[in-house]
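In response to the reviewer comment on reproducibility (Comment 2.3), we provide here a single inverse folding case reported in full, input and output, so that an independent group could reproduce the run without further information from us. The structure tokens appear first.
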């Protein structure tokens, strides 16, 4: 490919490279841009926002109003250009920083359950019968610049939560309605929720661990264990603690 083809309008280039070129040529360091303008420029590409976020591990610094409060919610700020991902030797910069091994370690630690909503791999979302949750890795602090490449920096997320958390637009949820729900919780659950908020992640409880491990057993062993627990629960009148 000759260098004249290195233009953000060239649809033969990957979306991440096109976004990088657009930012370099149309925005420039020290300028703001809107997500709408980015999407309009790189139209016809799915998940343009994600391709832009994928530049961050390559050293690109793009601020949102979450870490630069002077920005409007739809505004972004190009603070620094990182690796020239349009060059062949830098094309993979920042990508594939998650090894297969690390992915497995995180999934195993989290028992193959989304740490944000608790759904397990291939389970159906309660509000979406017939759906099958797909697990992926998310960052513990998705909006922080940079971030560690170590296992501790990642959690298991279902694709739906991952998209919501990473989506710079965030959910168009009315905070008043959320607060009504929070206030409606019994005191014990409010305290529990507060702990989740402080940790910014839903911690795994003992019952989550038991459930997650149970779900990893082969079907026949699960059946056996279910009957075993059924017996235990029946014999103790609801399974009161020993
Ligand atoms: Zn989830």
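Designed residues, in position order:
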């Amino acid at each position: 490919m000759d260098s004249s083809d290195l233009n953000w309008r060239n649809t033969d280039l990957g979306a991440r490279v096109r976004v990088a070129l657009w930012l370099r040529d149309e925005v420039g360091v020290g300028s703001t841009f809107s997500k709408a303008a980015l999407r309009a420029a790189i139209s016809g590409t799915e998940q343009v926002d994600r391709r832009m976020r994928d530049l961050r591990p390559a050293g690109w610094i793009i601020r949102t109003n979450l870490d630069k409060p002077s920005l409007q919610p739809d505004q972004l700020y190009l603070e620094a250009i990182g690796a020239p991902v349009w060059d062949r030797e830098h094309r993979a910069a920042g990508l594939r920083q998650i090894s297969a091994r690390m992915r497995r370690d995180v999934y195993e630690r989290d028992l193959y359950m989304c740490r944000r909503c608790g759904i397990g791999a291939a389970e159906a979302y309660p509000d979406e019968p017939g759906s099958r949750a797909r697990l992926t890795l998310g960052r513990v602090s998705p909006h922080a610049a940079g971030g560690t490449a170590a296992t501790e920096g990642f959690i298991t997320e279902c694709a739906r939560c991952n998209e919501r958390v990473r989506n710079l637009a965030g959910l168009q949820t009315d905070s008043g309605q959320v607060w009504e729900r929070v206030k409606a919780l019994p005191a014990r659950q409010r305290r529990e929720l507060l702990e989740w908020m402080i940790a910014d992640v839903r911690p795994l409880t003992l019952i989550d661990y038991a459930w997650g491990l149970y779900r990893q057993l082969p079907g026949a062993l699960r059946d056996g264990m279910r009957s075993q627990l059924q017996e235990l629960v029946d014999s103790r009148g609801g399974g009161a603690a020993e």
